[in-house]
């Protein structure tokens, strides 16, 4: 069924948009809550007449949100996650975890406003994510996905083992080279004694 949104519905659309939804969602939730109207010819004509009023209201809301956007712009958020070899995460980092990290910094952002176009993050690294505070106001934040303490300790231990193994190989190669150099000299010394 087609409906006209009367207010922003996260994940669906902005006020004034005509969207397609399932019948039950439209009839049983959006329309009774006052979030939408049926997309009849009469309502579409009424919407066209009221579009200026809707746009003016959105512009006023956008101005209010811009102050918050200025404080949020460029914020760096760090999320720790357990990772394996190559920086691949066990699991993923979702917008819910990012919203919790933002809340710890004092920003109350709904998780659905954090836009993750490629889906959940599955590798360590630094990412730039847009946050849609308002239909007209989008701000970028920096997200650093770092290894947690357990992963960092395991990596340090693996690096130490690899370094010790490399040192042992160097020592083994040196001993083998020394033994090979001494072996021909001993054979030459033994040959005259046999005659």
From TrEMBL:
- List UniProt keywords, sorted A-Z: Ribonucleoprotein, Ribosomal protein, RNA-binding, rRNA-binding
Q: Which domain of life is it from?
A: Bacteria
Q: Where is the composition biased (Basic and acidic residues)?
A: 156-168
Q: Which Pfam families match?
A: Ribosomal_L9_C, Ribosomal_L9_N
Q: Where is the Ribosomal protein L9 domain?
A: 13-40
Gene3D superfamilies documented for this protein: Ribosomal protein L9, C-terminal domain, Ribosomal protein L9, N-terminal domain
A GO term, aspect molecular function: rRNA binding
List every stretch annotated Disordered.
Answer: 154-195
Biased composition, class Acidic residues, residue ranges: 176-195
InterPro entries, alphabetically? Ribosomal_bL9 (IPR000244), Ribosomal_bL9/RNase_H1_N (IPR009027), Ribosomal_bL9_bac/chp (IPR020594), Ribosomal_bL9_C (IPR020069), Ribosomal_bL9_C_sf (IPR036791), Ribosomal_bL9_N (IPR020070), Ribosomal_bL9_N_sf (IPR036935)
Entry's Gene Ontology BP terms: translation
Q: What GO cellular component term, any one, is given?
A: ribosome
Q: What does this gene product do?
A: Binds to the 23S rRNA.
In the record, the note on similarity to other proteins reads: Belongs to the bacterial ribosomal protein bL9 family.
UniProt cross-references to PANTHER family, sorted A to Z: 50S RIBOSOMAL PROTEIN L9
Q: Which HAMAP family match?
A: Ribosomal_bL9
What is the protein name given in its UniProt record?
A: Large ribosomal subunit protein bL9
